[in-house]
Amino acid sequence: MTLKRLIAVDGLDGSGKNTHASSIKTLIERNGEIVVIRSHPSTGRLGRASKNALQREGHVARFLATIFFTLDVLFSVRWYNKKADCTVIFVRYILGTAYLPRRLAPHGYRLFRNMLPFPDLALFIDIDPEIAIRRIEERDHTREMFETKEKLDKVRQTVGKLIGEEWTVVDNSENGEQPFRRIEAILGERGFI
Predict the structure, then answer these.
(1) Helix, strand, or coil (residue 136)
(2) Least confident range of 29-33, 52-56, 103-107, 156-160
(3) Cβ–Cβ < 8 Å for 6, 76
């Protein structure tokens, strides 16, 4: 068995990645397909190590978070490529490299892009960082190192320099059906639903 289809849902913290991934899963499952969502950092050992590092500050913590995140994604791709005859939706995939220092982000992105299969559908859920911070503040969780407006602004700018035409950008700054309807239309155009 092999991976049938890979979808990546990337975006800033607070952008609605998990919400949209769940909606995509529901739409594709209506066709009788098996769909799995794999979020990163995962609940596995590497994901927990990444999450732990994200809750600290400093260069070493940032480096460790990136290394463990990368290994977590690599492990997931390897696992699902061998075990799954299904569509896998990755919440956070190769744009985790945008969280690297700006001078390293393009190199990290290219490396990741060459190491991993590129998704059949790559979505970047965009959001104004001020709105993202408001959403993050509503959550009941320990704040992570990148969850400030200034850091999200920088990451968003970096993403803008990394992604190309192969990425579909969906603006999720407003609540409502519009972003989801756009995703639904894209899924229809690509023959996913």
Answers:
(1) helix
(2) 52-56
(3) no
- Give me 184's structure tokens: 């639904």
Where do the structural domains in the chain lie, given as residue ranges?
Answer: 5-189
Domain 5-189 has CATH 1.20.1740.10: no
In the chain, DSSP assigns E strands to: 5-11, 35-39, 87-91, 121-126, 167-171
Nearest to 186 by CA among 20, 18, 16, 45: 20
pTM: 0.87
Tokens of 51: 């999450």
Q: How many CB atoms lie within 10 A of CB 145?
A: 16
Q: Which residue type occupies 59?
A: H
Rounded CA gap, 147 and 137, in Å? 9
